[in-house]
Design a protein that fits this description.
By secondary structure, this protein is an all-alpha fold. It has one domain. The chain is 79% helix and 0% strand. The chain is built from 13 helices and no strands. The longest helix is centred in the middle third of the chain and has 49 residues. The radius of gyration is 21 Å and the shape is globular. The mean pLDDT is 80.
Length: 346
């Protein structure tokens, strides 16, 4: 990628982060107090996310190798992974974000078609794992409700039913997409959107053969390279479960459930499952507001509603949202900095 193009991506990300900082409605005194309260757990959270990014990069590498050789070093895949997520966090819906950037950076190594299909497959797998993660959280909530730990009224039952329908529809669409490809269908769908009809029709006519090859590579991963498909899915799904540790650490700080009569193992398991549910409900709510940069406001609102539904105080939800925002800002800034280094290649 040319430095001029890379600088455009960098500028968009930097502007979005600056806007977010000026609209972050938390005083510096409270922010600093919460960081001090988190203490060494904040370091543990940052280390956890480094591991999660390594797993994301590993997933992407498996997908690339599923369609042929992977000449790009793993450290560069990790760099592009962190930067790609940073751009997706910082820009509305990732429209000027991670996916276009990663395709342009990967193109010199494996060509446009393989770069495009691998980036799309990674994004699909990331979202596909989220749908299964949200589905699992429904079962976890029902399990805790049967054990008498969480309430299950008519209102919550309706919410869980709607979540199940949403997840089932999403899983079905992705399975169809993996079997038949979805790029050509996506371009056809754009033909029905006012303002994009002419561009979509011209794009489809000019790149019909390339779009069909990309769809073929997408369907090939699930049909012919099932080992790569299931390995990448397992990594993404396990990563979503491990992400619950971030909230688990913070619940321990607030001694949630410390007065419980459960055994040590059952107590720790219950706290982790509560963390699992908080992450699931919050991520679902925040992803429904995907058009907001850094999911501004959606993440905080999701945490507030999640902890309230699980019987915790608003202070806990506010603290978790602030620490998660600090972590996001840290890795967004790191991703933007990585965009400017390590760009020369043999």
């Amino acid at each position: 990628m040319k430095n001029k193009t890379r600088n455009i991506f960098f500028a968009f990300g930097l502007i979005a982060v600056i806007v977010m900082l000026f609209t972050f409605k938390v005083s510096f005194a409270q922010l600093w107090a919460d960081i001090l309260h988190a203490g060494y757990w904040l370091i543990a959270i940052l280390i956890l996310w480094i591991i999660l990014y390594i797993m994301n990069a590993w997933t992407w590498r498996i997908i690339i190798r599923g369609s042929g050789p992977c000449p790009i070093p793993f450290w560069r895949i990790l760099k592009l992974t962190i930067t790609g997520f940073a751009l997706n966090y910082a820009t509305p819906a990732g429209l000027m974000g991670g996916e276009p950037y990663k395709i342009m950076e990967l193109k010199p190594y494996i060509g446009t078609q393989r770069a495009t299909s691998s980036v799309l497959l990674f994004a699909m797998m990331h979202i596909f794992a989220h749908f299964w993660f949200w589905t699992t959280s429904i079962l976890v909530y029902l399990l805790l409700a049967l054990c008498g730990i969480l309430p299950l009224g008519i209102g919550m039952g309706i919410v869980l039913l709607l979540m199940l329908c949403f997840c089932a529809a999403g899983i079905y669409l992705f399975i169809r997409g993996y079997k038949n490809g979805m790029v050509v269908r996506l371009v056809r769908f754009l033909n029905h959107i006012p303002g994009l009809k002419r561009w979509a029709r011209r794009f489809a006519d000019d790149h019909q053969e390339d779009l069909q090859k990309i769809d073929h590579q997408i369907s090939e991963l699930q049909g012919q390279n099932q080992r790569s498909f299931y390995a990448s899915f397992a990594l993404e799904y396990i990563g979503r479960i491990m992400q619950s540790l971030e909230i688990y650490f913070m619940l321990l700080l607030f001694h949630v459930g410390a007065d419980s009569q459960l055994s040590t193992f059952n107590f720790q398991l219950s706290i982790f499952l509560l963390s699992f549910l908080i992450l699931s409900f919050t991520s679902l709510f925040a992803n429904l507001l995907f058009f907001l940069p850094l999911q501004l406001g959606g993440r905080e609102g999701g945490f507030a509603m999640s902890v309230a539904q699980l019987g915790m105080t608003a202070d806990i939800g506010l603290f978790i949202s602030i620490i998660c925002r600090v972590r996001e800002l840290f890795f967004t800034a790191l991703g933007l900095l990585l965009m400017k280094v390590g760009n020369s290649r043999q």
